[in-house]
Amino acid sequence: MTAHNLSLGALRQAYESGRQTARELITELRQQALAQSDYNAWIHLLSEVELEPYLARLDSECIDNLPLYGVPFAIKDNIDLANIPTTAACPDFTYTPDESAVVVATLIAAGAVPLGKTNLDQFATGLVGVRSPYGEGKNSLNPDYVSGGSSAGSAIATALGQVSFALGTDTAGSGRVPAVFNNLIGHKPSKGLLSNRGLVPACRSLDCISLMTLNCEDAAALMDIVAQYDPEDTYSRPNPHFNRARYFGGHPSDSFCFAIPAEPFFAGNRETQALFEHSVERLCALGGEVKRIDFEPFEEAARLLYEGPWVCERALATEGVQASKMLPVIAEIISQAQSKSGTDAFAAQYRLAELKRHCNSLIAEFDFVLTPTCPTQFTRAELAEQPIARNSVLGTYTNFVNLLDYAATAVPVGFTRCGVGWGVTLFAHAFSDIKLLTYANLLHRDRALPLGATGIKAPPRTATPGPQTPSETVELVVCGAHLEGQPLNWQLTERGGTRLAQIYSAPAYQLYALSDGKRPGMVRNEEQGAAIEVEVWSLPMDSLGSFVAAIPSPLGIGKVELEDGRWLSGFICEASGLINAIDITAFGGWRAWRAHKTAESKP
What is residue 454's DSSP assignment? Predict the structure, then answer.
């Protein structure tokens, strides 16, 4: 059985060169999935008849019109695909939707072809992949080991080279743990970036549809396609401009700073400990500076997910299913909701708010935090001995992420002696998705691992830098009433502005006191101009619009040249505003002019 490089770039080259057609490839991949059925990756593999409408569309479409032309993908079976049963790995729950989930429909519209619905821990409750009546998910690299869950089948199918990427879900790590166990990238987006309409909820307030890909580039490209605001999803959030794929790639900065837990936990596994320590060393060699932080607040937040009242959300999502129709371990977990009260729910929310503020302060100075994705690995036999306790161990570094509203990228970094993959996770504040994928890419390309379980070598690492991730702030030049200590400075500070420098403009500006006497106007005049005292302020990008909207005519924002040669956004004045204005250039700045006027008014 010939393995194909199904990464997005390689697949598109194969199609454009004519070496492969989408129909030929997807037919072959379907046969491969049937031949590898012992891994229990699939609950419903589309038949040839069910695939035909997707293939027929591609026969008549130009590849240039579809960014995902002929890209095969898998869908976790708690996400809807039109006219195909959704089971959530519970036969008695099964229904057949008329429409695809929003994310699925978006991918299909872009040219991607669904190969089928994949196996999962029942009702997405588990991190192991063995809690399914459709068979235990077997690790693609060593079938004796757990595949990780709950998005088990999605990881297995992608790692075996049956699809280019897969949709999983991630509430407590369900898209990250199986990714690294199967040598894949697992990206858990910021909450709300991907629409959850058409998803069977686990914990509706926390659920994220996640991506499993062969590399970070593919994850970034897919995020641009599927991270679309959905006004019909009450948890949907728009994607900020700085969190786009055009800012992905290369070395994000000359240096960066990241944190790790003060005392990482590896459940006694020296191999995973060594892989983690080597990852830290490699990131430092790539320009990083590492510091250790207290991880207890994150661990306490993690415990809230299953020990706290959020288990009630799982009970709400499955309230129409009798416990007798569930797997015993799933019924046992969900039954814990019966002991929770409304008082418990509010108390836990209050505590979570305290923990979030504390955790945010701990990571504020870092570009990201690096943790093990999970402490260790288990065989399927070991898991059967302690199914709940060992599942909990795997969630040590994943359960808190959605509760604290962070984004996270799991990246494989190597293999243990049993052959199973293992990896680390980078996490940071919401809407840091592309930044995280960029840093993860540094590490992933450095490790040069093969693609999934296929043995195909990754392309060689290149030294060509990509675009830098943009700042989430803008540097703004002010010259008058917005200077520190002046009457309108509050308009900057209340929007989170901070002063960066007191400096002078290039010697090419004239300064005027406008006719109202309250504001200056600065205009460029290279022949008669002088250097004017100004300040540079940093303003959050999402506050810039409201700040600019409050600026009255004749003032506005343009580009101002500073004495050090930089051109930054700053205050400029329309020519019409100079009528009856007084030229105060000789004073060198607004403060000096104001001091002169004050002295003039004294008897």
Answer: S
What are the residue numbers of the active site?
A: 76, 150, 174
Q: What's the pTM value of the predicted model, to 2 decimals?
A: 0.83
Instruction: List the structure tokens of 60.
Output: 């008549």
CATH code of the domain containing 239: 3.90.1300.10
| Residue 463 pLDDT > 60 | no
For residue 235, give Cα distances in angstroms to 232, 272, 318.
9, 36, 20
Confidence tier at 349 by pLDDT (50, 70, 90): very high
* Whether the Cβ atoms of residue 128 and residue 146 lie closer than 8 Å to each other: yes
Q: Which of 85-99, 324-338, 339-353 has the lowest mean pLDDT?
A: 324-338
d(CA 368, CA 408): 9
Query: In this model, does residue 252 exceed pLDDT 80?
Result: no
pLDDT band at 255 (very low <50, low <70, confident <90, very high): confident
What end-to-end distance do the CA atoms of the chain give, in Å?
97
The domain in which residue 219 lies consists of 8-447
150 in any annotated domain = yes
Q: Do 281 and 288 contact (CB within 8 A), yes or no?
A: no
Q: What is the DSSP letter of 419?
A: S
**Nearest-angstrom CA–CA distance, 341 and 347:** 10
